[in-house]
């Protein structure tokens, strides 16, 4: 099973849980797809786009469960990032973890996060 990740403010994700689906953050809706990251990309995504933000969640999503609406497309530096063209069904979610800020101001990823991505 391949997991991909969405970094999301807690309030936005709790609203998605109540609604039964995630329709995206404002930036996702503006771009026309939900921005996701692979395990290798998630730390840089957190540092670049969520620096200093607390009250975030790391949502683990099973890539294969998203079907053809998931596309890997070039983004920063030519890396292929997963983009979901449509709503994220909560059935594809495999875990939701707090993503707090550490004392150094960087986000602290859960222990279960893939080891090959740890510094």
From TrEMBL:
Please give the InterPro entries that the UniProt record associates with this protein.
DUF952
Q: What is this protein called?
A: Dihydroorotate dehydrogenase
Q: Which organism is it from?
A: Methylobacterium oxalidis
- Organism classification, top ranks? Bacteria, Pseudomonadati, Pseudomonadota, Alphaproteobacteria, Hyphomicrobiales
């Amino acid at each position: 099973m391949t997991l991909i990740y969405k970094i999301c403010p807690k309030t936005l994700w709790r609203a998605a849980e109540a609604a039964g689906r995630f329709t995206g953050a404002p930036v996702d809706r503006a771009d026309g797809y939900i921005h996701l990251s692979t395990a290798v990309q998630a730390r840089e995504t957190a540092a670049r786009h969520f620096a200093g933000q607390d009250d975030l969640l790391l949502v683990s999503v099973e890539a294969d469960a998203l079907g053809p609406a998931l596309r890997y497309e070039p983004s920063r530096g030519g890396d292929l990032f997963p983009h979901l063209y449509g709503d994220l069904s909560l059935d594809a979610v495999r875990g939701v973890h707090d993503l707090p800020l550490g004392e150094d101001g960087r986000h602290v990823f859960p222990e279960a996060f893939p080891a090959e991505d740890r510094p």
